Amino acid sequence: MSAQTVPIHYVHRMLRVAERRGLDVVPLLREAGIPEDVAGHAKARITVGQFGRAARRLLVLTDDELFGLGPRVPRGTFRLIGLSLIHAPDLRTVLGRLADASAVLAGVPRITVTEDGARTTLAADVSALDDPEHLGAEVVATLAHRFSGWLIGRRIALRAVELPYPEPAYALDYYPILGRMPLFGTQRVALTFDSVLLAAPVVRSEADLLAYIDLMPGNFFATRDHGSSTADRVRKILEGGLRGTWPTPDEIAARLAVSVQHLRRMLREEKTSVGRIREELLRDAAITSLARGEEPVEDLARRLGYSEASAFRRAFRRWTGSPPGAYRPTH
């Protein structure tokens, strides 16, 4: 799994879904390997693996592939749909079969696909979901986007994203997942992309599909949407710094074929900077190591370039609101 981390609000919202159904959330956290002290902190982040385990546990507890947010979608429904899609010749056929399946499978949000010249829009009607946490809408959007791209082995650059609820405080977290800032408060979930992708062939097998399903939904977060935003392209370049020397802003700008001033301006428009992205990489690497529990804090600090463990501890508390020890496994 990726060293990317996931904001704790995803878990907070899953816990609210569970609590609304009278479920005990403590075992969910325990089985996901998320310490309760971490789960309770608004600034906390968790690994992709921890998030995936928490989501899979909620799926088991609700016995529903949409977490009990609407008419029941029995476990195994996605596998059934996937086995139909995996043998399609191209993306156009995939989306047509997906729309057909949504029309006959109870509980699955109705999917429509509209091809309008150079642009194609996949829309989902999630109005039947009891979804105040917006988890159902997000699952539908990320599943449609990531699974379609996975089937054709290509990144699907989204030209527009629509989500049917007010803009949340965590809106910027959609950037690394969807590669696009959504338009909020619409009447549907909708993803718009270039129609030329409809001819892309399906390149996956049934064996690939079963392995993919085993990793859901953590694999929606494991791969960032490199290329859609300047921040993601800069992050990809900076990732090499975790294994050696950090690229300078001048070197990053040269690789992107822009001036340093233009690079900084583009990052400001996305509410970030080279320094902030570098800190996010350090934070994610630190959280991933601590969650594994295999590396002493002093060694981790040294590997991440801190001359003193105390400086690393201060930085970690600034990033997450907790000391590094809070992220150690409890079992």
UniProtKB/TrEMBL annotation:
A UniProt-annotated Pfam family: HTH_18
SMART domains recorded: HTH_ARAC
SUPFAM superfamilies: Homeodomain-like (SSF46689)
InterPro entries with a match to the protein in the record: AraC-type_N, Homeodomain-like_sf, HTH_AraC, Tscrpt_reg_AraC-type_HTH
Keywords tagged on the record: DNA-binding, Transcription, Transcription regulation
Protein's UniProt keywords contain DNA-binding: yes
Every HTH araC/xylS-type domain range: 232-330
Domain of life, per lineage: Bacteria
Keyword DNA-binding: yes
UniProt-listed PANTHER family: HTH-TYPE TRANSCRIPTIONAL REGULATOR GADX, HTH-TYPE TRANSCRIPTIONAL REGULATOR VQSM
Protein name in the entry: AraC family transcriptional regulator
